[in-house]
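Design job #97: recover the sequence.
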């Protein structure tokens, strides 16, 4: 079955494949000319089997198009959207007398889903204000203690025996970067084992604990993680600077929206009159498609 997005793409692709009409071959239709003042959402653009297609429908469909279609020239976009709606209406008319109970339920769910999404969108948009962002920033970063960041290198091998041999070679004067390039089994080997800067929680726990107990220049004893055995060299440490509000705005906005949505869902369901008489049904009924596929 063609999805709505595929149907839309099919209609627009057909328009794009058609020859482009040059301006000098287009003859204006005086009867179709409409001033900007006359145009509104109820302006009829086409009629299919007696059903009007309005400019408002075209505008809503155009807003939902993928980005690549939004970039089309106006004449192609207009024609493509109109043809999409014409085809959609013609197809809908062709099965209007074949609508089943399953179809009615599906349409009810789609309407419900749209309205639910609209409700949550309104809540999410309203949650992000300059004041709310500043408050969230102050709570998360205002009194936060400076975090230590680490710059480390490692050599990763599969066995403890290999790791011990490497540690001994380093104690005997071998160059860490050269050994990493020769022995290490991960992608950092080509950079001499360098992992760059990382903060708390960015490495697996045994690795993180190892570097937190080291001084710059130290080389660890073998450390086991789920990836294998590591010999770690701590190159440098620094205190991480507190991020500016602008740098974490998107992160904070997402947190505010998630919190607002969760609170709204809790509130609105608590205030609603809800009963669940179906709770005592056998849960296996969820797979009984025969009830709806008749």
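Job complete. Output follows.
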């Amino acid at each position: 079955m063609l999805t709505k997005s595929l149907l839309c793409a099919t209609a627009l692709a057909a328009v794009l494949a058609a020859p482009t009409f040059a301006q000098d071959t287009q003859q204006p239709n005086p009867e179709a000319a409409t001033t900007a003042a006359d145009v509104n959402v109820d302006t009829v653009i086409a009629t299919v089997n007696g059903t009007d297609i309005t400019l408002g429908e075209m505008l809503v469909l155009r807003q939902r198009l993928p980005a690549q279609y939004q970039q089309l020239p106006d004449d192609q976009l207009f024609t493509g959207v109109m043809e999409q709606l014409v085809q959609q209406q013609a197809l809908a008319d062709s099965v209007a007398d074949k609508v089943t109970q399953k179809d009615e339920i599906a349409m009810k769910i789609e309407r419900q889903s749209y309205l639910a999404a609209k409700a949550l969108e309104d809540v999410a948009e309203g949650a992000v204000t300059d004041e709310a962002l500043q408050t969230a920033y102050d709570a998360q970063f205002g009194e936060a203690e400076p975090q230590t960041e680490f710059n480390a290198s490692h050599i990763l091998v599969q066995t403890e025996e290999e790791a011990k041999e490497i540690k001994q070679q380093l104690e005997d004067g071998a160059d860490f970067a050269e050994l990493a390039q020769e022995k290490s089994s991960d992608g950092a080997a080509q950079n001499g084992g360098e992992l760059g800067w990382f903060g708390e929680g960015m490495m697996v726990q045994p690795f993180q604990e190892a570097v937190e107990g080291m001084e710059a220049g130290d080389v660890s004893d073998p450390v086991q993680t789920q990836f294998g055995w590591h010999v770690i060299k701590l190159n440098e440490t620094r205190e991480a600077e507190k991020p500016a509000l602008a740098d974490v705005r998107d992160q904070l906005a997402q947190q505010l929206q998630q919190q607002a949505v969760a609170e709204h869902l809790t509130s609105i369901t608590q205030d609603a009159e809800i009963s669940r008489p179906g709770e005592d049904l056998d849960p296996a009924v969820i797979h009984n498609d025969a009830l709806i596929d008749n």
